[in-house]
Structure formats: structure tokens, C-alpha cells
């Protein structure tokens, strides 16, 4: 029998506008249900696990991800799929993190939320939640149709570690520039099966403890040695996600390349991803990225920022030598990256 577990973490989806102060305040799931009678009409069973208090997703962190993964672990055998109600602000981070934490997933984990609270007349919450539930419940040939961590928002289903919140106002808050949508919902839900990962035959393994030993270096014209050194020498870090221009380019000043080289020599992993939302890093394509390749910067190819940060946090949770981490960073583990055509 189909059974779905809704994990309600918080977000705008579960907020109500206070009539006098006009601020949005979180409400409990009971109140959500009162605003949403359609939930009772679904022809499968569902239960709810509610965070108390519900969180604005800006407060997401590694402990909360571990808690979500633990709830999925404890209930994995009893449910056919999971729907996580979550604020949109950090939804792509949570989806990316969970994609790495839930190894060999063979059931859908669909994150959704909304731009307008459930109680608002024009809310997008109803459609988002109902269709996320339908996707989590959908089966093909006795197996889950989408055995992946994904984000459903505004009629589109994205692979979680490929999605990005790009708009704070439109109902279409997310896109996935480097990977096609896994499904589009219209009158019917059209699954694009060729893009959905097959369910692995191995048992689920849950990795709950990510490591936060990651810093970010965003390159901009005029960045100083002090700033670069401050990031590279952040106490406790083991890796840096470096956001570069275009297909992975940076400026070529010797002081900069030498600073990177020194950091890599003392064991820091530097992962290059592009500041562009679409396209991939291709180290060595231009003179301006050849030096990065030479000093041992790792290519993040077409990974999103969210996937890059959480993948590093995931890989640092294993006690692996830097060389092995670098190899795994450049290898697709959960469909989070593709190599550019020129590499194939
Ligand atoms: N600040 C809210 C959150 O991320 C926004 C939203 O839910 O869309 O929790």
C-alpha cells in the first residue's frame, strides 16, 4: 500500500500573515491542514512529522540535515516516499546535501515549499504540495518512478543537486540550468524517464555526519592578496570552493597562483566552479585557467554552488587522503555533474 511521510520543517509554506503586524509567522501542521482540505482527498495514506518549532530555512544547518536524514532512516521501511516541506531559501542546499547523505536511495524524496503562505488566496503551496505528493507516490513497474532527491516547484521537478533558487518573487523560484527537468506537470505529470537515475540494487546507506570544513573564495576583479590569504588560511578548513569566471578562468597574477599553489601544497583541496549558472568549468581551455590546472586546482565541471559545497562536506566526512577526495570531487556520485562535451 502506498504511504507517504510528510516531513514539515517550516518555511513560508507553513506561515500565516499576522493581521495586525503584517509579519509572517510559522503555524503548525494542524493549521496547514485546515487551510488545505484537498489533502484528505488523496487516495493513499500519509502521515506527518512536524518540526517544533518550524524553521525558516535560513536557519538550516548540518545538524538539521542529520535530523532529516535520521527521520528518513527510521521510517524508510514503512513509507513508499517522502515529501519534505521546506523554505525555498536554502532548499537547494538541503536537497544537494541529502542527495549525498542518502546513498543507494530507491524511493522518492521530494522537497517542496512555496512563495506565498498556504493561507494566502493566491498561494502556490497547494499545487506544489499536492503534485509533490503525487510524484512521491508514483510507481512504475512496481518501483518508485523517481528514486531521487528532487525539488518540485511551479510545475517542474528538478534533480535536487542540480537545482538553484534564482528568483525571490516569481512562483517559478527554481531552475536547473545544466540538467533537464525530470518531470513537468500539466494536465498530466510527464516524466522524462531518460533523465531519471535508475534505482540502485544495493541497500540504502545513510551518512548523517557531514563536516563543515569548507570555505568559499569568490573571485572578482580587484580582489587583494589579503582577502585571498584570509580565506585560504581560515583555521580548520580542508577545502575551498573557488567561484571563478566563465569556464573556470581567474586572473593570472603570480602572487595569486602562488598563494593557491602554497595552499594546495599544504593539503587544501581547491574546487573550481563557475560563477555562471549555466555551463561548465573546462580547465586549460584558456591560458587563464591553465595555471590553475598546473598547480592542482580541481574541476567542479558543471556543479552548482550548492552541490559543490555539500559534496565537499560529504567527502570530508570520510577519512580519505586529499588525492582521493580530489578524484571523487571530479566524479559524478549522484548525478550532480556532467563532463563538458569536449572531454568526451
Ligand atoms: N525565508 C523562507 C524560507 O526559506 C522563504 C521561503 O520559504 O520561501 O524559509
Task: Please summarize what this structure is.
The protein is of the alpha/beta class. The protein is built from 9 helices and 20 strands. The site of aspartic acid has 10 residues, from loops.
Walk me through this protein's architecture.
This protein has helices at 29-34, 62-75, 91-101, 125-137, 225-232, 254-265, 287-295, 305-315, 322-329, and strands at 3-10, 15-17, 24-26, 45-55, 81-85, 102-103, 109-112, 139-140, 143-144, 149-153, 156-159, 164-165, 174-175, 183-185, 189-191, 205-206, 214-218, 239-244, 269-274, 298-299. It has 344 residues and is of the alpha/beta class. It folds into 2 domains: 3-206, Rossmann fold, CATH 3.40.50.1170; 214-329, Rossmann fold. An 8-stranded mixed β-sheet has the order 4-1-5-7-10-11-14-15, sandwiched between helices. A 4-stranded parallel β-sheet has the order 17-18-19-20, sandwiched between helices. A two-stranded antiparallel ribbon has the order 2-3. Helix 3 (91-101) runs parallel beside helix 8 and helix 5 runs parallel beside helix 6 (254-265). The site of aspartic acid has 10 residues, from loops. Aspartic acid binds at residues 11-12, 56-58, 87-89, 113, 115.
Amino acid at each position: 500500500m502506498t504511504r507517504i511521510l510528510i516531513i514539515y520543517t517550516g518555511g513560508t509554506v507553513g506561515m500565516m500573515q499576522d493581521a495586525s503586524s503584517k509579519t509572517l509567522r510559522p503555524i503548525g501542521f494542524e493549521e496547514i491542514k485546515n487551510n488545505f482540505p484537498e489533502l484528505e482527498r488523496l487516495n493513499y495514506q500519509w502521515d506527518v512529522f512536524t518540526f517544533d518549532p518550524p524553521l525558516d530555512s535560513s536557519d538550516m544547518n548540518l545538524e538539521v540535515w542529520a535530523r532529516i536524514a535520521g527521520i528518513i532512516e527510521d521510517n524508510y521501511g514503512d513509507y513508499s516516499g517522502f515529501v519534505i516541506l521546506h523554505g525555498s531559501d536554502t532548499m537547494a542546499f538541503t536537497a544537494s546535501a541529502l542527495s549525498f547523505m542518502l546513498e543507494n536511495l530507491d524511493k522518492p524524496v521530494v522537497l517542496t515549499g512555496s512563495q506565498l503562505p498556504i493561507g494566502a488566496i493566491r498561494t502556490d503551496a497547494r499545487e506544489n504540495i499536492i503534485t509533490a505528493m503525487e510524484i512521491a507516490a508514483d510507481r512504475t513497474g512496481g518501483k518508485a518512478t523517481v528514486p531521487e532527491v528532487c525539488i518540485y516547484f511551479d510545475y517542474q521537478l528538478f534533480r535536487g543537486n542540480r537545482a538553484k533558487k534564482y528568483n525571490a518573487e516569481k512562483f517559478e523560484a527554481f531552475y536547473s540550468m545544466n540538467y533537464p527537468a525530470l518531470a513537468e506537470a500539466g494536465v498530466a505529470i510527464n516524466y522524462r524517464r531518460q533523465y531519471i537515475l535508475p534505482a540502485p540494487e544495493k541497500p540504502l546507506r545513510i551518512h548523517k555526519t557531514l563536516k563543515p570544513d569548507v570555505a568559499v573564495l569568490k573571485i572578482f576583479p580587484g580582489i587583494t592578496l589579503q582577502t585571498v590569504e584570509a580565506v585560504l588560511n581560515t583555521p580548520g578548513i580542508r577545502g575551498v570552493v573557488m567561484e571563478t569566471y566563465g569556464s573556470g578562468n581567474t586572473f593570472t597574477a603570480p602572487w595569486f597562483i602562488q598563494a593557491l599553489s602554497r595552499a594546495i601544497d599544504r593539503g587544501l583541496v581547491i574546487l573550481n566552479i563557475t560563477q555562471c549558472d549555466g555551463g561548465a568549468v573546462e580547465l586549460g581551455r584558456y591560458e587563464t585557467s591553465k595555471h590553475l590546472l598546473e598547480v592542482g586546482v580541481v574541476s567542479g565541471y558543471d556543479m552548482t554552488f550548492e552541490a559543490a559545497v555539500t559534496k565537499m562536506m560529504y567527502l570530508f566526512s570520510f577519512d580519505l587522503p586529499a588525492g582521493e577526495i580530489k578524484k571523487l570531487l571530479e566524479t559524478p556520485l549522484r548525478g550532480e555533474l556532467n563532463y563538458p562535451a569536449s572531454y568526451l
